[in-house]
Amino acid sequence: MLENFKMNNYCHCGSGASSRISNFVIRLAIIYTFEVAVAMSQSVMMVNDAQGGFVYKEFQDPERDRLLYGHFPPNFTWATATAAYQVEGAWDEDGKGPSIWDTYSHQDGRIYNNHNGDVACDSYHKINEDVEMLKSLNVTHYRFSISWPRVFPEGVPSMKNMNEKGMQYYQDLVNALIAANIEPMVTLYHWDLPQTFQDTGGWENDIVAVYFAQYADLCFKQLGDRVKLWITFNEPKVVASGYGGARKAPGLGHQSTGVYRVTHNILKAHAKAWHVYDDKYRKNQGGQVGITLNCDWAIPASESEADRDAADRALQFGLGWFAHPIFVGDYPDVMKKQVLEKSRAQGLTSSRLPIFNEDEINTIRGTADFLGLNHYTSQMIAHHNSELMPSSYSSDQDILGWHDENWPKCGVSWLRPVPWGIRQLLKWIKEEYGDPAVFITESGIAEKSDVEPMLNDTWRMQYYTAYINEVLKAYILDDVDVRGYTAWSLMDNFEWADGYLSRFGLHYVDFNDPARPRTPKASAEIFADIVRNNGFPNPQILSKSSKYLSKLSSYLLFP
Ligand code: GBH
């Protein structure tokens, strides 16, 4: 096995730049340290088999699913994430303006049991509690988002229009994090558009891209001396779905052309914000600006060419929609072709997918210092000739997606753990987009409960162990440039249309108690231990007192 590690690394060494070579040296050093440690441990058995058992009874392919022992690079980013509307509460306090999520969740029947984010986890008043939780998890970073209407209640950003009290919350949070030796990773837009902009079309109106760049500019100016990792948008695909048919704000049902107009403008907004940073702040602040995209891994339902093409289309429509313009230039060919052909057959004279001119293609290309990836699950994908009408982003793809019935279930129906999918997706990204730096910016699993706390969350211990281990394989065995892993979420929070019913937290939050107490679930300890170990030390060479060892063996299957 160790021989294989070396072979793997040698094979990839020819490819490139000096950063790759230093990466390579770090890896060799890790492997070397590992070998020495193993030799010293006198457990000869492990020298030839540096792998452990299986996490899921459903996944026991010996080549694919065995745990790999090893470590991430020394500067690996470990984080948990939240988003403003999901945790802050204080929805109209201290001069905050309404967002489209305030409007949407206050409409009757939109959200499970008419829940809303008015109070949420009350994080606006609980900086200390939140930082204490982060400390207990040993994380190096905290990913949170800024509420645009909290800092610019009218939407339009200028120093004159800035809501000082709102901005002070983020100043205080950033300072508290840094005092605790935790670095902020800040998302500028996690779905809560100022309502004032929605009144004139929201993201369907391209003026919002200009305002977004001004908003980003002022956030860089206010916080960029301390914030070194910026994410412009969280999941533009899901932002668009709120203009299409999904249960998301603003809830418009414009799934034929609206979703494409929205994302066209978001791509422009993202690029403008990146250029603002590049032109005005990069030299002095020295940070990085990326974008976060969500995508499931797509598994061809059969070996047929039609199904393999369909799985590729799922990835091109799912990730390539944004990643291709940013990392390669323009929309993916297959997307342009599909939407144009469908549009013509629907009697339109031009494609429902807007066209970028040369200038726009060049302005958008190259505008990500890293790719943020939100990944939760995988899907089986087959070719399917969709009905011509009604037209939608979904039917434009001519695919059918589903979960294999043998995959384990969890509290939400769209998510089934398929740990090896994250490794496959990371490999695909590396090949498709020229080996970009990737931060996993979200990954996690949910239980459903609004009655009793479910604190012994073995499903989450399994999920994080298996998924993080697959990321380790991508790093060690596939040489993917993966820089960090972020657990969604730090704590249970407002899970959009599911309200407080679906819980993704490492900490349980009691939403019936006005004090919103946070309690660690069992998985918090396991996650903290993986973080502290920076990966998965071989149990044979680990001190017997490790919590990690005793916990692992309590739920892993060792054949
Ligand atoms: C993330 O989206 C979000 O960034 C985060 O805010 C959220 O809390 C977290 O996931 C957990 O959901 O209900 O069948 O219509 C992940 C991508 C896209 C997955 C929308 C769920 C809805 C499927 N999400 N999708 S369905």
From TrEMBL:
Keyword annotations of the record: Glycosidase, Hydrolase
InterPro entries registered for this protein in UniProt: GH (IPR017853), GH_1_N_CS (IPR033132), Glyco_hydro_1 (IPR001360)
Record's keyword annotation contains Cell membrane: no
Pfam families: Glyco_hydro_1
Similarity-based family: Belongs to the glycosyl hydrolase 1 family.
Name the record gives this protein: Lactase-phlorizin hydrolase-like
Species in which this protein is naturally found: Saccoglossus kowalevskii (Acorn worm)
